[in-house]
Amino acid sequence: MDPGAVVALALLLTRMYAPLTALATARVEVMSALVSFERVFEVLDLEPLVAEKPDARPVPAGPVSVEFDGARFSYPSADKVSLASLEEVANLDTRGGVEVLHDVSFRAEPGQTVALVGSSGAGKSTIAQLVPRLYDVDGGAVRLAGVDVRDLTAGSIRETLGMVTQDGHLFHDSIRSNLLLARPEAAEEELWDVLRRARLDDLVAALPDGLDTIVGERGYRLSGGERQRLTIARLLLAQPRVVILDEATAHLDSTSEAAVQAALGEALHGRTAVVIAHRLSTVQTADASW
Asked: How many Å apart are CA 114 and CA 66, to the nearest integer?
């Protein structure tokens, strides 16, 4: 054989090797895909614990009150909210049903700030999760503007409520994109306005890429106080009628806390608010406390 034919044959054999190997392992890949699809469909077939009624209506227009009326709640057991295959166990824990809220009643009037204070594990964050209907109460009622949240549409509840937690989530994207999650149609001037009100405009203006600066996964390129203020700016852009603050100043130093407190003052102005905190500085301006 000519040298050229030998080289061509070697190259052709090399080109054929990868497809032949893939064909030999195709059955294994197909079987793995089928198993994966079965697990995906198992998740899709799970019945949601919170469902919207067919005749659900939006939150009434105007100022909104938040009311708990004899609310009782216990977290569901693992077998109701998950699958054994996802948890990598043979059988899910069936324990549950221990009541964590017992006949809770309070009312935050429109424009009023109500503070919830208590030891860890007292149920403060559970109350915060019941207002946006992440869970449904087992007894009693949670009402927005006098209407049980179970009778309201999920979309209108999301538009009405804004929440800031102690670990505000930021996506691995630009500052602009993280803000526009609250209101995609917002103009550039509105973005700078909420950053100014959140005491963050000078920092963003000093960054090389400004609003197009990538914040990193969960905002790791920003400090704790800067992340909190950015989530507050996002809340200000959304303009919710009800604000829930769940330990929004926890784990902050005194300097960062002062900046966040100033931003929270902007966020709470004229809005109904439920504030959960351990620090006296966070709740001392509240209209009422429980």
From this structure: 10
